[in-house]
Amino acid sequence: MQKLAPKMHQLIFITLWFIFFFISSAGVMAKENNSFAIKKIREHVYVISHMGKNGHVNLGVVEGDDGLLLINSWMEWGNEEYAAVLKTISNKPVKYVINSNDELYNHQGSRFWAEQGAMIISHESFKSSPEHHQLLFTDQFSLVFGTERVIAYQASDDSLGHINIFFEQANVAFIAKQYGLISYAEGLDKALSMGNEQTLFVSGIGTKITSDAVGVRKEKASVSQFTQRVRQLYHQGLSINEIADDDLLGEISQKFEKYTVYKKSLRSKVINIIEKISIEVFSLSNKKLLEH
Fold first, then answer.
1. d(CA 20, CA 269)
2. Do 207 and 265 share a structural domain?
3. How many domains does one find in the chain?
4. Which of 82, 95, 191, 193 is least buried, going by the fewest C-beta atoms within 10 A?
5. Residue 175 reports pLDDT greater than 80
Protein backbone atom coordinates (compact mmCIF):
# COMPACT_ATOMS: atom_id res chain seq x y z
CA MET A 1 0.00 0.00 0.00
CA GLN A 2 2.86 2.34 0.78
CA LYS A 3 4.25 1.87 -2.76
CA LEU A 4 0.90 2.86 -4.25
CA ALA A 5 0.63 6.03 -2.14
CA PRO A 6 2.74 8.28 -4.45
CA LYS A 7 0.62 7.20 -7.45
CA MET A 8 -2.51 7.88 -5.46
CA HIS A 9 -1.25 11.38 -4.59
CA GLN A 10 -0.39 11.95 -8.25
CA LEU A 11 -3.86 10.83 -9.34
CA ILE A 12 -5.49 13.10 -6.78
CA PHE A 13 -3.32 16.04 -7.95
CA ILE A 14 -4.18 15.43 -11.63
CA THR A 15 -7.91 15.12 -10.79
CA LEU A 16 -7.89 18.36 -8.79
CA TRP A 17 -5.97 20.11 -11.57
CA PHE A 18 -8.58 19.06 -14.16
CA ILE A 19 -11.41 20.20 -11.88
CA PHE A 20 -9.71 23.58 -11.40
CA PHE A 21 -9.05 23.94 -15.13
CA PHE A 22 -12.68 23.06 -15.98
CA ILE A 23 -14.09 25.54 -13.47
CA SER A 24 -11.73 28.28 -14.67
CA SER A 25 -12.59 27.61 -18.33
CA ALA A 26 -16.31 27.61 -17.54
CA GLY A 27 -15.87 30.95 -15.82
CA VAL A 28 -14.16 32.43 -18.88
CA MET A 29 -16.87 31.06 -21.19
CA ALA A 30 -19.58 32.51 -18.99
CA LYS A 31 -17.85 35.87 -18.97
CA GLU A 32 -17.62 35.88 -22.79
CA ASN A 33 -21.27 34.88 -23.19
CA ASN A 34 -22.29 37.51 -20.67
CA SER A 35 -20.80 40.20 -22.92
CA PHE A 36 -24.18 40.09 -24.67
CA ALA A 37 -27.48 40.90 -22.98
CA ILE A 38 -30.79 39.94 -24.62
CA LYS A 39 -33.95 41.97 -24.00
CA LYS A 40 -37.34 41.26 -25.53
CA ILE A 41 -38.89 44.69 -26.02
CA ARG A 42 -42.02 43.80 -28.01
CA GLU A 43 -43.64 40.67 -29.41
CA HIS A 44 -41.13 39.10 -31.84
CA VAL A 45 -38.68 42.04 -31.35
CA TYR A 46 -35.44 41.71 -29.38
CA VAL A 47 -32.42 43.89 -28.66
CA ILE A 48 -29.06 42.18 -28.21
CA SER A 49 -26.69 44.58 -26.48
CA HIS A 50 -22.94 44.15 -26.36
CA MET A 51 -21.91 45.55 -23.02
CA GLY A 52 -18.85 47.83 -23.10
CA LYS A 53 -17.32 50.22 -20.59
CA ASN A 54 -18.61 53.25 -22.51
CA GLY A 55 -22.14 51.97 -23.13
CA HIS A 56 -24.06 49.46 -25.20
CA VAL A 57 -23.88 48.55 -28.86
CA ASN A 58 -27.51 47.66 -29.57
CA LEU A 59 -28.30 45.14 -32.30
CA GLY A 60 -31.86 44.27 -33.32
CA VAL A 61 -33.51 40.90 -33.99
CA VAL A 62 -37.02 40.34 -35.33
CA GLU A 63 -38.47 36.83 -35.44
CA GLY A 64 -40.68 36.01 -38.44
CA ASP A 65 -42.65 32.91 -39.36
CA ASP A 66 -39.70 31.10 -40.92
CA GLY A 67 -36.63 33.17 -40.14
CA LEU A 68 -34.91 36.10 -38.45
CA LEU A 69 -34.25 39.66 -39.55
CA LEU A 70 -31.19 41.35 -38.04
CA ILE A 71 -30.53 45.04 -37.52
CA ASN A 72 -26.76 45.01 -38.06
CA SER A 73 -24.53 41.95 -38.04
CA TRP A 74 -21.84 42.50 -35.37
CA MET A 75 -18.06 42.14 -35.78
CA GLU A 76 -16.43 39.65 -38.13
CA TRP A 77 -14.31 38.07 -35.38
CA GLY A 78 -17.44 37.46 -33.28
CA ASN A 79 -19.55 35.68 -35.92
CA GLU A 80 -19.70 32.32 -34.17
CA GLU A 81 -20.34 33.81 -30.75
CA TYR A 82 -23.12 36.04 -32.09
CA ALA A 83 -24.69 33.13 -33.99
CA ALA A 84 -24.76 31.18 -30.70
CA VAL A 85 -26.48 34.10 -28.96
CA LEU A 86 -29.12 34.22 -31.72
CA LYS A 87 -29.88 30.53 -31.18
CA THR A 88 -30.98 31.32 -27.64
CA ILE A 89 -33.79 33.32 -29.27
CA SER A 90 -34.59 30.96 -32.15
CA ASN A 91 -33.06 28.24 -34.33
CA LYS A 92 -34.64 29.82 -37.41
CA PRO A 93 -32.22 30.91 -40.15
CA VAL A 94 -31.27 34.56 -40.71
CA LYS A 95 -33.20 35.76 -43.77
CA TYR A 96 -32.32 39.48 -43.84
CA VAL A 97 -29.68 41.81 -42.42
CA ILE A 98 -30.27 45.58 -42.54
CA ASN A 99 -27.15 47.69 -41.97
CA SER A 100 -28.06 50.94 -40.19
CA ASN A 101 -24.62 52.50 -40.70
CA ASP A 102 -21.04 51.66 -41.67
CA GLU A 103 -19.50 51.41 -38.20
CA LEU A 104 -17.32 48.28 -38.12
CA TYR A 105 -19.12 46.82 -35.12
CA ASN A 106 -22.39 46.97 -37.08
CA HIS A 107 -21.61 45.56 -40.52
CA GLN A 108 -18.45 43.44 -40.46
CA GLY A 109 -20.43 40.22 -40.03
CA SER A 110 -22.49 40.83 -43.19
CA ARG A 111 -20.33 38.53 -45.29
CA PHE A 112 -20.85 35.67 -42.84
CA TRP A 113 -24.64 36.00 -43.00
CA ALA A 114 -24.61 36.45 -46.79
CA GLU A 115 -22.77 33.13 -47.05
CA GLN A 116 -25.50 31.60 -44.87
CA GLY A 117 -28.08 32.73 -47.44
CA ALA A 118 -29.26 36.03 -45.93
CA MET A 119 -30.05 39.09 -48.04
CA ILE A 120 -27.99 42.13 -46.96
CA ILE A 121 -29.77 45.49 -47.26
CA SER A 122 -28.06 48.91 -47.03
CA HIS A 123 -28.40 52.49 -48.17
CA GLU A 124 -26.72 53.15 -51.52
CA SER A 125 -24.30 55.68 -50.00
CA PHE A 126 -22.96 53.06 -47.58
CA LYS A 127 -19.25 53.89 -47.57
CA SER A 128 -18.00 50.35 -47.07
CA SER A 129 -17.61 47.92 -49.96
CA PRO A 130 -20.98 46.83 -51.40
CA GLU A 131 -19.56 43.38 -52.15
CA HIS A 132 -21.89 41.63 -49.72
CA HIS A 133 -24.94 43.85 -50.16
CA GLN A 134 -27.64 42.29 -52.27
CA LEU A 135 -30.00 45.27 -52.11
CA LEU A 136 -29.19 48.99 -52.00
CA PHE A 137 -31.90 51.67 -51.75
CA THR A 138 -31.98 55.46 -52.11
CA ASP A 139 -34.54 57.16 -49.85
CA GLN A 140 -36.81 54.47 -48.42
CA PHE A 141 -37.32 50.73 -48.59
CA SER A 142 -40.03 48.55 -47.08
CA LEU A 143 -40.83 44.86 -46.83
CA VAL A 144 -43.28 42.59 -45.05
CA PHE A 145 -41.59 40.14 -42.71
CA GLY A 146 -43.82 37.81 -40.74
CA THR A 147 -46.42 40.01 -39.07
CA GLU A 148 -44.29 43.13 -39.49
CA ARG A 149 -44.09 45.87 -42.06
CA VAL A 150 -40.47 47.03 -41.98
CA ILE A 151 -39.62 50.54 -43.20
CA ALA A 152 -35.98 51.55 -43.64
CA TYR A 153 -35.26 55.16 -44.58
CA GLN A 154 -32.36 57.60 -44.88
CA ALA A 155 -31.87 59.28 -41.50
CA SER A 156 -30.92 62.71 -42.91
CA ASP A 157 -29.94 64.37 -46.17
CA ASP A 158 -26.31 64.62 -45.00
CA SER A 159 -25.99 61.03 -43.82
CA LEU A 160 -23.70 58.55 -45.53
CA GLY A 161 -25.35 55.17 -45.30
CA HIS A 162 -27.05 55.99 -41.99
CA ILE A 163 -30.64 54.80 -41.85
CA ASN A 164 -33.42 54.42 -39.30
CA ILE A 165 -35.56 51.27 -39.31
CA PHE A 166 -39.18 51.33 -38.17
CA PHE A 167 -41.30 48.27 -37.34
CA GLU A 168 -44.90 49.37 -37.87
CA GLN A 169 -46.84 46.68 -35.97
CA ALA A 170 -44.43 46.45 -33.04
CA ASN A 171 -44.08 50.26 -33.01
CA VAL A 172 -40.30 50.11 -32.56
CA ALA A 173 -37.74 52.38 -34.19
CA PHE A 174 -34.02 51.61 -34.44
CA ILE A 175 -32.09 54.89 -34.73
CA ALA A 176 -28.61 55.01 -36.27
CA LYS A 177 -25.99 57.12 -34.55
CA GLN A 178 -24.26 59.54 -36.91
CA TYR A 179 -20.89 61.27 -36.97
CA GLY A 180 -22.38 64.75 -37.23
CA LEU A 181 -24.70 66.01 -34.51
CA ILE A 182 -26.65 68.23 -36.92
CA SER A 183 -27.53 65.27 -39.15
CA TYR A 184 -28.16 63.14 -36.06
CA ALA A 185 -30.70 65.70 -34.81
CA GLU A 186 -32.45 65.47 -38.19
CA GLY A 187 -32.50 61.69 -37.85
CA LEU A 188 -34.11 61.99 -34.42
CA ASP A 189 -36.75 64.31 -35.88
CA LYS A 190 -37.55 61.79 -38.62
CA ALA A 191 -37.79 58.97 -36.09
CA LEU A 192 -40.21 61.00 -33.96
CA SER A 193 -42.37 61.89 -36.97
CA MET A 194 -42.56 58.22 -38.00
CA GLY A 195 -43.60 57.05 -34.51
CA ASN A 196 -45.82 58.29 -31.69
CA GLU A 197 -45.87 58.56 -27.89
CA GLN A 198 -46.01 54.76 -27.53
CA THR A 199 -43.03 54.07 -29.82
CA LEU A 200 -39.94 52.41 -28.35
CA PHE A 201 -36.77 53.98 -29.73
CA VAL A 202 -33.55 51.95 -29.79
CA SER A 203 -30.30 53.83 -30.26
CA GLY A 204 -27.41 52.10 -32.03
CA ILE A 205 -25.03 52.94 -29.20
CA GLY A 206 -25.51 54.51 -25.80
CA THR A 207 -25.98 53.90 -22.12
CA LYS A 208 -29.64 52.92 -22.42
CA ILE A 209 -31.28 50.21 -24.51
CA THR A 210 -34.63 51.90 -25.20
CA SER A 211 -36.17 55.36 -24.86
CA ASP A 212 -39.66 56.74 -25.23
CA ALA A 213 -40.62 59.81 -27.27
CA VAL A 214 -40.01 62.10 -24.28
CA GLY A 215 -36.47 60.77 -23.91
CA VAL A 216 -35.72 61.21 -27.62
CA ARG A 217 -36.96 64.81 -27.52
CA LYS A 218 -34.72 65.48 -24.52
CA GLU A 219 -31.75 64.00 -26.36
CA LYS A 220 -32.50 66.14 -29.42
CA ALA A 221 -32.70 69.24 -27.20
CA SER A 222 -29.28 68.44 -25.71
CA VAL A 223 -27.80 67.87 -29.18
CA SER A 224 -29.22 71.23 -30.34
CA GLN A 225 -27.86 72.93 -27.21
CA PHE A 226 -24.41 71.46 -27.90
CA THR A 227 -24.53 72.68 -31.52
CA GLN A 228 -25.58 76.20 -30.52
CA ARG A 229 -22.80 76.39 -27.92
CA VAL A 230 -20.20 75.44 -30.55
CA ARG A 231 -21.59 78.11 -32.90
CA GLN A 232 -21.46 80.71 -30.14
CA LEU A 233 -17.84 79.96 -29.20
CA TYR A 234 -16.76 79.76 -32.85
CA HIS A 235 -18.20 83.20 -33.60
CA GLN A 236 -16.33 84.50 -30.53
CA GLY A 237 -13.12 83.52 -32.31
CA LEU A 238 -12.12 80.50 -30.19
CA SER A 239 -10.01 77.75 -31.76
CA ILE A 240 -11.20 74.15 -32.18
CA ASN A 241 -9.15 73.00 -29.18
CA GLU A 242 -10.42 75.87 -27.03
CA ILE A 243 -14.00 75.04 -27.95
CA ALA A 244 -13.47 71.33 -27.24
CA ASP A 245 -12.07 72.23 -23.80
CA ASP A 246 -15.11 74.32 -22.88
CA ASP A 247 -16.50 73.07 -19.56
CA LEU A 248 -20.12 73.83 -20.41
CA LEU A 249 -19.80 71.96 -23.71
CA GLY A 250 -18.44 68.91 -21.89
CA GLU A 251 -21.31 69.10 -19.42
CA ILE A 252 -23.91 69.27 -22.21
CA SER A 253 -22.34 66.32 -24.03
CA GLN A 254 -22.86 64.09 -21.01
CA LYS A 255 -26.63 64.36 -21.51
CA PHE A 256 -26.55 62.43 -24.78
CA GLU A 257 -23.26 60.53 -25.04
CA LYS A 258 -21.28 59.35 -22.05
CA TYR A 259 -18.28 58.40 -24.18
CA THR A 260 -17.72 62.03 -25.19
CA VAL A 261 -15.66 62.36 -22.02
CA TYR A 262 -12.87 61.36 -24.39
CA LYS A 263 -11.64 64.59 -25.95
CA LYS A 264 -11.06 63.04 -29.36
CA SER A 265 -14.73 62.18 -29.74
CA LEU A 266 -15.90 65.57 -28.51
CA ARG A 267 -13.37 67.38 -30.70
CA SER A 268 -14.52 65.51 -33.82
CA LYS A 269 -18.08 66.68 -33.16
CA VAL A 270 -16.88 70.27 -32.80
CA ILE A 271 -15.01 70.00 -36.12
CA ASN A 272 -18.08 68.60 -37.86
CA ILE A 273 -20.25 71.51 -36.68
CA ILE A 274 -17.62 74.08 -37.72
CA GLU A 275 -17.40 72.45 -41.16
CA LYS A 276 -21.17 72.81 -41.42
CA ILE A 277 -20.91 76.49 -40.47
CA SER A 278 -18.24 77.02 -43.15
CA ILE A 279 -20.48 75.40 -45.78
CA GLU A 280 -23.36 77.64 -44.73
CA VAL A 281 -21.17 80.77 -44.97
CA PHE A 282 -19.85 79.70 -48.38
CA SER A 283 -23.36 79.03 -49.69
CA LEU A 284 -24.60 82.39 -48.41
CA SER A 285 -21.67 84.22 -50.04
CA ASN A 286 -22.33 82.51 -53.36
CA LYS A 287 -26.03 83.40 -53.14
CA LYS A 288 -25.19 87.09 -52.56
CA LEU A 289 -22.78 87.07 -55.51
CA LEU A 290 -25.45 85.59 -57.76
CA GLU A 291 -27.99 88.18 -56.62
CA HIS A 292 -25.60 90.97 -57.66
1. 49
2. no
3. 2
4. 193
5. yes
Average pLDDT, the chain: 82
Cβ density class 120-143: b for 16+ within 10 Å, e for less: bbbbeebebeeebbeeeeeeebee
Residue 190, in any domain of the structure: yes
Residue 79 domain-assigned?
yes
d(CA 94, CA 97): 8
Does 216 reside within a domain?
no
Residue 218 has pLDDT above 80, yes or no: yes
Residues 180 and 46 both lie in one domain: yes
Amino acid at residue number 11: L
Q: What is the CATH number of the domain that holds 71?
A: 3.60.15.10
256 plus 160 within the same structural domain: no
Residue 28 maps to a domain: no
Kindly report, residue by residue over 103-117, the tens digit of the pLDDT: 777 888 888 999 999
Query: Are 137 and 267 within one domain?
Result: no
Q: Which domain holds residue 286?
A: 226-291
Q: What is the 3-state secondary structure (H, E, C) of the chain?
A: CCCCHHHHHHHHHHHHHHHHHHHHHHHHHHHHHCCEEEEEEECCEEEEEEEECCEEEEEEEEECCCCEEEECCCCHHHHHHHHHHHHCCCCCCEEEEECCCCCHHHHCCHHHHHHCCCEEEEECCCCCCHHHCCEEECCEEEEEECCEEEEEEECCCCCCCCEEEEECCCCEEEECCCCCHHHHHHHHHHHHHHCCCCCEEEECEECCCEECHHHHHHHHHHHHHHHHHHHHHHHCCCCHHHHHCCHHHHHHHCCCCHHHHCHHHHHHHHHHHHHHHHHHHHHHHHHHHHHC
Same domain, 231 and 94: no
Between CA 222 and CA 181 the distance in angstroms is 10
> Distance of alpha carbon 209 from its chain centroid, rounded?
10
Which residues share a beta bridge with 135? 121
